[in-house]
Fold this protein.
Amino acid sequence: MSIEIQLYKGDIYIENGQVSMVGGEEKLIQQIAKMIMTQKGGFFHPEYGSDIYTLVGRVQSPLILEPLSDDSIRTEMAYYKDIQSTQEIIQTMDDDEVLYRVIKTSLNILSNTAFHLDIDVMNRRGTALNVSSIQGF
């Protein structure tokens, strides 16, 4: 199993004076949330992240926004699966922390600058997991 630093509201989580680590299902949920909250187009990894931010505030109709956001998220999760496949070449990963498929996505626009996103995924072990995020920008 691989682990990474646990984040809480975007910050490193400290427990009993130690940096807390996360693995398994919690790691998968955290990694998906990080990818969705990161705007695509960074210098070192231009394909990593989400372009969901570009959809919010421009298209107001849920009939248009929902399919666009679903396509965007599924494309980003396919890219994330490719990242995990590459990772598995050099490190051991448990079935709990490997994305198998996206089950459902839901985007609810709260205002011109905020949205609530739910992503239901299944890990390779077959466990359904929910990634829920409210974002403002």
In short: The chain has three helices and nine strands. Residues 26-136 form a domain with the Nuclear Transport Factor 2; Chain: A, fold (CATH 3.10.450.40). Residues 62-90 form the longest helix (29 residues).
